[in-house]
Design goal:
Layout lengths: L2 H23 L4 H4 L10 H20 L27 H19 L4 H4 L2 E5 L6 E5 H25 L9 H7 L12 E9 L2 H17 L3 E5 L14 E7 L2 H9 L1 H4 L2 H7 E9 L4
Antiparallel strand pairs: 1-2, 3-5, 3-6, 4-5
Helix pairs in contact: 1-4, 1-6, 3-4, 3-6, 8-11
């Protein structure tokens, strides 16, 4: 097993633990989730927001600014001002955003190679406002370690509140998974879109704003625009988009999400669009 496979396991562990933690948190009322329990980020609610915020900040460094934006109810980017900032005050919205980011983490890990992990990585840290440069694998390892560090503080606060999330051991998760080889991978889902642009100005706004919504649900662009080259038949599309999602479920969630539905009217009035959903090959 190489380093990339280890990061895939850590991405699975992150989602496994977050689902257990949020399920336990849902048993508490708002007052208990927001009670100051003396932790570094005070309350359970504040700590969950910090974890989401820092995961998105770091994903933004790995993927670029569009890779992990936080959007408000109108679909506009939320400016990150501090590490203790509350991104989402409503618990259920915070829970949905956590799921979206965990899907984006899977999509990010799928882009990693051993060569890329060994290359220099440069970024400006929020904690000291300084530029740092080192190999990428350091940053990715810190990314997952930081999650585990603060999630442990959340489980301690839940224990103080009388709730037990169960085993938090990585080994417990690994032992519960299908044995290798033979792990069945869920087929990826694809959306193939043919677009004829009617209003370039309005469409430009759509093009600028939609990628952040795709990334939040673990999606990525495989093909975006370019010049289609006819091979057979008389198909002459003006513009082709091919989106990839971790699963058909995640693609459907993105398509029905409030943040994308806020942008869909722009596409409808600025283009003629035909789209189909496709299932990829599993394994």
């Amino acid at each position: 097993m190489d380093l990339v496979e280890q990061y895939r396991a850590l991405a699975r562990y992150n989602r496994w633990m977050n689902r257990k933690v949020y399920a336990a948190c849902a048993e508490l009322g708002n007052a208990e989730r927001r009670r100051d329990r003396g932790a570094f980020f005070r309350s359970i609610h504040d700590m969950l927001n910090h974890l989401l915020l820092t995961d998105r900040v770091q994903l933004g460094r790995f993927l670029g600014p569009e890779g992990a934006l936080s959007l408000d109810d109108d679909g506009r980017p939320i400016e990150i001002l501090s590490l203790d900032q509350i991104l989402y005050d409503d618990f259920e919205q915070l829970r949905r955003e956590r799921e979206a980011t965990d899907a984006a983490i899977f999509a990010f890990v799928d882009t990693l190679t051993l060569d890329r992990l060994s290359r220099p990585f440069r970024y400006r840290a929020m904690v000291d406002d300084r530029e740092h440069e080192h190999v990428l694998w350091w940053a990715v390892m810190h990314f997952f370690n930081h999650q585990t560090h603060h999630r442990g503080q959340v489980t301690a606060m839940l224990s103080q509140a009388g709730l037990d999330v169960g085993s938090t051991d990585l080994m417990t998760m690994l032992r519960s998974e299908p044995a290798e080889p033979g792990r069945e991978a869920e087929p990826r889902a694809y959306m193939l879109v043919e677009i004829e642009v009617l209003d370039p100005v309005a469409y430009a706004e759509y093009v600028e704003r939609v990628p952040a919504t795709v990334a939040r649900y673990g999606g990525r662009y495989v093909v975006r625009g370019g010049a289609p080259v006819p091979l057979t038949g008389d198909w002459r599309p003006e513009r082709i988009i091919l989106l990839e999602f971790p699963s058909a479920e995640r693609m459907a969630e993105w398509n029905a999400s409030p943040e994308y539905q806020a942008l869909a009217p722009i596409r409808i009035r600025s283009t003629r669009t035909r789209a189909i959903a496709l299932e990829g090959c599993g394994g």
